[in-house]
Amino acid sequence: MLPRYDLKYAVVLLVLLASTVVGVYGFSTLELASMNSGTRTLLLSVAVLTALTVFTRRPPVTLCLGLLACLSIACAQAWPVIVVAVFALSATVLGRWMLRQATSVDWSVHLLVGAGTFGTLTGLAAYVPINYPWLYGALLSLPLLLGHKHLASTGRELLRHIQATRSAQPPLQTGLDVLICSFACLYVLVAFMPEVGHDALAMHLFVPSHLAQRHQWSFDASTYVWAVMPMLADWIYSIVYMLAGETAARLSNSAFTLLLAWQIRNMTLWAGGSATSARWASLIFLSTPLAFAESSSLHIESAWTAFMMAGTLAILKVSRFTPDPRERLSQLLLAGVLLGFALATKAVTLSVLPVLLVILLLQLKAWAIPGIAKTLLLGSAGLTLAGATPYLSAGYLTGNPVFPFFNAVFHSPLWPNFNFEPPATFGTGMTWDTLYRMVFKSPQFIEGRVGAAGFQWLLLPTAAVAVLLSGNRKALCILLIGAGAMFMTFHSTAYLRYVFPSFALFSVILALPFSDARIFPRSLAIVAGAVLVLTNTRFIQAATYYGDINPSALSSQAGRDAYLLERLPIRKMVDTVNALNSGYQPVAVFASPLMAGLHGDALYASWYNLKWKNAFDAATSPLALTQHLRQRQVKWLVIDLKSLPQAQLDRLLTVSTSYARLGDLDLRKLNVTHDERLLNPELSSLEGWSLTSPSTYDASRKILTVNVKTPATQRVEVTPGLTYINSVSARCATTATAGRVQANWMDDQGDFITASIETFDCTKQWETHEMSVVAPANATSVIIYASGHTDTPLEFKSLSFRQ
């Protein structure tokens, strides 16, 4: 505790004064952000919920649930909301059954354990073509059927809350509840909007849509460099996507952000905070522009941070803070599972685990008790089972367990032998002015605008000093973990989304001293909190370019289509491609990699697919480019006419024909041309051909006479996987008989692989017979035959083998 007017209290006030001066200077350099749709939506939500709270005397949380139900119906999103709610209930029941009351935790940990388990099972099922909606419907139904008693008790508890009137709580707490619920409305409404985010459409929505269409994921790192990265959050999104589509996936992401607010509340209460300070901590977090950015598009940091927060609190409870020694061991086991799920969600977890290990070792005496050997063994097994699968899979499929990172160490043939580096834009390390730059020079840390990190960082030094001097050991541990995680992560790359767990932890640190009237006067704390929340709200969209709330896009499908056509036409282009690409063939994409929902593989000429990009760059002639496209069985090309060098664009336009145009996006079809591979296909001479005696060649008539024992042949090179047309023009030489269209495939050693043969009956008239063939995967050449099918001779006047 910090008694007023002693030296420690003076130090805290001095730090606060210095932070205020720095903040005032920083604000003097800012241009006021224009009012955005997020701020307007939030203000409207505050007004509606305030009025409802005053007139109905119901708890704001209950009113918020009712308002969200009405909004889901009005926006025609009731089914996605129901699916996400069923997923949450099923995961909670499953998690409760798995933990079997062995650990003292609340429903949020049950939900996370169940969700992580569901996601892990989906990731394993993704290897085989069994992923259908009925399977996931059955998967979610099973825990609800088996745990119907718990489900019934949960329903009765929820009904009791809905029927309850607002209890006599301080007006400040009610006001904070209204604000928190207003942010919840904002986060849900933005989830109802169509997806326009880069990372989401390139990966996090692409994976669920691919899984739904093909019923399995390819794990093909040569086509998508991120195909074997940890993707637990994407597997969780895939479950609800399979049942209710894009909105359900986005809504589950927003739900994880709201779950984080609840976890922050729990951690604040655990650290000795009051009910009011717990509300302030949640509100500070939800008002942070980065938190809104995570919900404005389908990112994975909210799910990852939820696992990290739960695992961190479990680690903190493995200490003398937990009186019961058996409970400490249970929390240690739980921490292994939760941190394993975090590891399976994002590899950045590896940067934070050493910090948690140090905290754990500092509490060694608290958990080094009888039974610890078994607990450590089980905890390690839980960490491995929950977290190691994507790394083992990546190691097996690519030779690099963290592909494509650290490839200078692992030397996977699918990536150059140098380490994959994050963008140099964001820099590395921490300096004395890092907090200031995060606030007022945010573009150095994220693809956003000034204020993207939120303005709570200006108060963090004051809160940190207050915690250090207060003697609150729980708060001190939270501070050390948050700062250590940020330091370790920034050592690799100073990117804000990678330190999202620190944002959550520091929300607790900010709320504890500023909401304690024994440290700061109540009026000063309220003013500081109000100014902070208002400022964050004014800059709520500073960390994202995707968080618009468009009423017409929410209210009708036509408005949704118009919004996408104007905002991101490539999404409508994907629909056009799907209508034409009935064979699900690969599509060459020479535009932004925003192809979620595409029927077929997307071949990106970028670092996503270096092999394809290098081959495209090396194709310096229209013929070479055509061969390259045909080798990958490409028929359709999506081209951004303003994104390519002119020479490459000209070659693409030469070999294709435009079918549809949306702004600068051009959907084109590869021209159908047949390049003859045979020498002297019209038999003008025998150059290139090998005859078997006694076959004859009539030079005057340019006709070959052959039978099954005396064929004429020619060997040509082929490209594996390409389609070829093999045709002959033949007639009977004497009497009716049968002939062959024949191609013998050979490997690079000249050994026979297989033969493609079709027979035909000849007539006295010249007739053309044709066979379509695909070169085997290991074929490098083919032998083309002019041959009969019997000993009776046939005459050939031309043969063709065209690509």
Automatic annotation (TrEMBL):
<feature type="transmembrane region" description="Helical">
    <location>
        <begin position="524"/>
        <end position="546"/>
    </location>
</feature>
<feature type="domain" description="ArnT-like N-terminal">
    <location>
        <begin position="244"/>
        <end position="365"/>
    </location>
</feature>
<dbReference type="GO" id="GO:0012505">
    <property type="term" value="C:endomembrane system"/>
</dbReference>
<feature type="transmembrane region" description="Helical">
    <location>
        <begin position="65"/>
        <end position="95"/>
    </location>
</feature>
<dbReference type="GO" id="GO:0006493">
    <property type="term" value="P:protein O-linked glycosylation"/>
</dbReference>
<protein>
    <submittedName>
        <fullName>Glycosyl transferase</fullName>
    </submittedName>
</protein>
<keyword id="KW-1133">Transmembrane helix</keyword>
<dbReference type="Pfam" id="PF02366">
    <property type="entry name" value="PMT"/>
</dbReference>
<keyword id="KW-0812">Transmembrane</keyword>
<feature type="transmembrane region" description="Helical">
    <location>
        <begin position="351"/>
        <end position="369"/>
    </location>
</feature>
<dbReference type="GO" id="GO:0016020">
    <property type="term" value="C:membrane"/>
</dbReference>
<feature type="transmembrane region" description="Helical">
    <location>
        <begin position="376"/>
        <end position="397"/>
    </location>
</feature>
<feature type="transmembrane region" description="Helical">
    <location>
        <begin position="12"/>
        <end position="30"/>
    </location>
</feature>
<feature type="transmembrane region" description="Helical">
    <location>
        <begin position="172"/>
        <end position="193"/>
    </location>
</feature>
<feature type="transmembrane region" description="Helical">
    <location>
        <begin position="450"/>
        <end position="469"/>
    </location>
</feature>
<keyword id="KW-0808">Transferase</keyword>
<dbReference type="InterPro" id="IPR003342">
    <property type="entry name" value="ArnT-like_N"/>
</dbReference>
<feature type="transmembrane region" description="Helical">
    <location>
        <begin position="476"/>
        <end position="492"/>
    </location>
</feature>
<feature type="transmembrane region" description="Helical">
    <location>
        <begin position="224"/>
        <end position="244"/>
    </location>
</feature>
<keyword id="KW-0328">Glycosyltransferase</keyword>
<dbReference type="GO" id="GO:0000030">
    <property type="term" value="F:mannosyltransferase activity"/>
</dbReference>
<keyword id="KW-0472">Membrane</keyword>
<feature type="transmembrane region" description="Helical">
    <location>
        <begin position="107"/>
        <end position="128"/>
    </location>
</feature>
